[in-house]
Amino acid sequence: MLKARAVAETPKRIMAGGRRRRSGFGALLLGLIALTACSGPQSALDPAGDGAARIASLFWVMLGGAALIWILVIGLAVYAARSRPGRDAERTASALLLWGGLVVPTAVLAGLLTWGLALMADLRARGDGLEIAVSGEQWWWRVDYRMPGRDAPVASANEVRLPRGQRVELVLTSPDVIHAFWIPSIAGKVDMIPGRVNRLVVEPTRTGAFRGVCAEFCGESHALMAFSVEVMEPAAFEEWLGQQAEGAAAAATPEAAVGEELFSQVGCGACHAIRGTAAEGSIGPDLTHLADRATLAAGILPNDREALVRWITQAETIKPGSRMPSFGMLPEDHVEAIAAYLEGLE
Ligand code: CUA
Q: Which residues does ligand 1 sit against, CB inside 6 Å?
């Protein structure tokens, strides 16, 4: 009888083993897929800056520690469920409470706190000279490069360029609502609070294109305010900044020349500045070197002719709550001409 039951149970056990192996394989596959999400231009776990590297190491140590403690606790629970209470069960329980409930957590948390505070120690130290003032607007980023020895800052928008290996101080503000400035690959995030000036020193460690975001709900287009980040070799950065400090390029084609004329007629210059022309507005982004940027409308559109036309005619639809009105009433060839002019602003 017993033998027969054992034989009858064997296929069930084999099937259960197969299922276990399959679910184990599935978990491994899911884990690998999840790990591939850890890299890329916007990942805090694929650091390209000193601050992000510290945060990543803190994360991995905490993850490893949490896994270890979890295994320990589950092991204890299994042991407790299986063992029979002995004569000195009460004494063992008290010791477990003392060590597991008080001594170990206090030691682990105190160690983590000490290490975490040590990681932050020089994050607020001064930079190497270059300051970049970034202001969170509704819903875009005003970016001004302030170089030592130069009076006027170089105005840009929706893009932050950084020299590799240098400590750059970011001066973070906002005129109206609270945003959070975050370049996950490079450093931790810092709030931009009206009436306050917050500082963040970043030190990029490798060149490349990265992505920054607003990490705090700030209004209807919160999810539509990103920015591109480019880390360059210091010499290339200096050259780029020198070029940015210059005025705008003259219109290179007849169509662009018409566009330049229309730009001022329609009133674009009331909100936008194009250095070297009569356009001196400061409500919207500085467009002096617009064509040089990777994206349009704060990281949400590619920087090409088609997107320029779409943005000019449908700004309020593309970015709800945007202060840029939609100029859908303009004749198509006028919009095309303005786009041609903007496209030439390298
Ligand atoms: Cu700005 Cu969210």
A: 136, 139, 179, 214, 216-218, 222, 225
